Amino acid sequence: MKTSTCKCGGNIKQDRCFAEGFLIDCMKCDKCSETLFTPEQTKQLIRLRDANKDIEGKRKIIKVGSSIAALLPKKVEAYGVKEGIVDSIRVLSSNSLEIKFNNDIIS
Ligand SMILES: [Zn+2]
């Protein structure tokens, strides 16, 4: 991983940042928190934005036996999401959960 030096003297390292509501790779100064995006990271943001445009919307949660299941739009199959085990589910914010897969669904 390449590091560079910020104007403030801190080290700029790869990190994860929120941009437009998406959690993406970024370059961040460990001292002043200045955030930059490489051309590849900018492309990643555009791909996430496009994918989100494709699948965003209101969905339902249904009861399945003693569990509940969130119904995802069929379009997510195009991203390699299929029935099976997800890597983890965790709280992301006060009103959202993150469903994490063990491989990238949007590269
Ligand atoms: Zn800095």
Briefly say what this structure is.
With 107 residues, this protein is of the alpha+beta class.
Task: Give the tags.
single chain; binds zinc ion; two-stranded antiparallel sheet; alpha+beta; 8 strands; 107 residues; four-stranded antiparallel sheet; elongated
Ordered list of secondary-structure elements with their pairings:
Blueprint lengths: L3 E2 L5 E9 L2 E8 L5 E2 L2 H17 L5 E4 L2 E4 L17 E6 L2 E5 L7
Antiparallel strand pairs: 1-2, 2-3, 3-4, 5-6, 7-8
Bound molecules: zinc ion.
Give an overview in words:
The protein has 107 residues and is an alpha+beta fold. It has one domain (4-100). Helices cover 16% and strands 37% of the residues. The strands form three sheets. The chain has a four-stranded antiparallel beta sheet. It has a two-stranded antiparallel ribbon with strand order 5-6. The chain is elongated and about 55 Å long. The two termini are 18 Å apart. The mean pLDDT is 91. It binds zinc ion. Zinc ion (ZN) binds at residues 6, 8, 10, 29, 31-32, 34.
Sheet-strand content, in percent, reads: 35-45%
* Mean pLDDT over the residues: 91
Fraction of residues in helix: 10-25%
**Global Rg:** 17 Å
The topology string of helices and strands comes to: EEEEHEEEE
Helical run tally: 1
Shape annotation: elongated
- Segments where pLDDT lies below 50 for 5+ residues? none
Strand order of the main beta sheet, please? 1-2-3-4
What is the number of independent domains?
A: 1
Describe the largest sheet.
4 strands, antiparallel
Give the N-to-C terminal Cα separation.
Answer: 18 Å
